[in-house]
TrEMBL record:
Encoding gene (name): cydD
Predominant cellular place of this UniProt entry's protein: membrane
GO cellular component labels: plasma membrane
Organism: Iodidimonas gelatinilytica
Domain of life per record: Bacteria
Name of the protein in question: Thiol reductant ABC exporter subunit CydD
InterPro entries referenced in this protein's UniProt entry, alphabetically: AAA+_ATPase, ABC1_TM_dom, ABC1_TM_sf, ABC_transporter-like_ATP-bd, ABC_transporter-like_CS, P-loop_NTPase, Type_1_exporter
Membrane topology summary: Multi-pass membrane protein
Entry keywords, A to Z: ATP-binding, Membrane, Nucleotide-binding, Transmembrane, Transmembrane helix
Compartment annotation: Cell membrane
Amino acid sequence: MRFAGLLSVLAGLIWPIQAAALAWAIAGWIAGDMGRTPWAAAIFVAGGFLRAFCDHRAGQILFDAADQTISHQRAALITREARARAPLGSAEIAALIVQKLPLLQPWITRYSIAMIKVAVLPLVLLLISFWFSWIVGLVLLVAGPLIPVFMILIGMAAEQASRRQMDEIGSMNAMVMDRLSAMLDIRLLGAADKALADFSDRAEALRIKTMAVLRIAFLSSTVLELFSAIGVAMVAVFVGFTLLGEITFGSWSAPLSLGEGLFLLLIAPDFFQPFRELAAAWHDRAAGLSVLAELDALDGAERAPFLGEARAARPLDGPLTLSLAGVVAALPGRRVTLPDFSLKRGQSLALIGESGAGKSTGLAALAGLVPLADGQITVCGHRLDHETADAWRARIALVPQRPHFPDQPLYAWLDPDKRHTDPWPALKRAEVDQVVLRLPYGLRTRLGETGGGVSGGEARRLMIARAILSGRELILADEPTADLDPDTAAMIIRALMHLKENGHSVIVATHDPDLAALMDRRVEVGQ
Ligand SMILES: Nc1ncnc2c1ncn2[C@@H]1O[C@H](COP(=O)(O)OP(=O)(O)OP(=O)(O)O)[C@@H](O)[C@H]1O
Ligand SMILES: [Mg+2]
């Protein structure tokens, strides 16, 4: 970054040399000395090439730096949010990753360089101007600093406007997600027109906020152009009248020569150039800062991380045992106290208790998916912590209440460990084989995120087939029979009992008295 700054300052410093060569050649023509022209032309062209090279190289370095920063941030965000979600909608996080992070690029590439140039180039050109004429120096000295003052004033407004625009982008995305997931209800309730009207309202709000940002951007460049135009015009008037002999003061001893006057005229616009670039980059800065503010807010958000790295690991050694002592699970903004109990290989247990007591939280804690505020979970003789969690999870299969199907073929989903066992016996065991046969592409069907194509009960039976196939010893099932008809519930109970008879340990969280009665023990949560 610093090297890129150096290169662009160097590129800026070449112009006075080119301008001097040009002025020298023109002064030569007037004096009838054409011999200077080839030299001046050579210097001018060489300077031009060098300048272009420096600018190009600086641009390359900056774009690479920006790309790296953005992809690094993006990867960090995705890994972190996948591990432990902040209390923010997925649409908003997607907006941040896809739409807002790239806004850091112009900020990194343009703004920081403009800042470095503003700190060096105007000062150098000012000193050169003062060297030839104190009046030109004075004009630049007065017109120059007015620009940053105005820009700071405008900048404050720009930042606020940008932040409002970012918020609107985020909530627009959240709304799209919300309406898409409720599409069926919207159709059934005949609310499509209302939803459409909501969208156009939101789009209009986003338009207004975007226009506000643009207005400020245009205003800041107008202010700048005004000051630089006045500054350059005053220098031109002074130089013109001096050369005509109308003005005899302003330069140090002798009046300005034609060459000196031309030189001053040529470098005056470049005195304002860095300010111009800064103004153009000013709203990049505003956008960049509001993205940073969002990233900071996300960094500071309270989140419940899970234990371990979520990597494939070798299963934990030793016979399967599990015990809880004084465990308090720490959910965001809530503590859930869990009862003490222990379990050995082949045993089964039902977590019962009223809704909201903490049964699901208990299962998640047993899988190391919820951090503990107090107490200890011991698994296979080890404390369940960051070191042991992945290895522990390699020995358990979780059957959640609402299965989530990733976008992959069923056979791949059924066999995450790539053991290539024949899935049909397990599917038959879970009484879901007929369902798979009915799917359009059988085992090659992709069910997708929402499990489209199978019912809730079928999805749960697929989940159990997967648990059977995995060969994992402990099955954690959350409300496996909830909201199912008695026949389907019976199928699921049969499959679970089969697992139990084959030496698996089973823990279910359930309201179903039939299922609870079939387990060896019942432990009440929330007592
Ligand atoms: N992600 C979360 N953040 C904050 N609080 C939560 C979260 N998940 C659950 N809770 C709270 O923790 C408590 C226990 O929830 P849990 O889902 O474990 O109950 P449950 O016994 O499984 O209930 P149900 O029988 O309805 O499934 C509830 O009061 C719930 O509001
Ligand atoms: Mg629950």
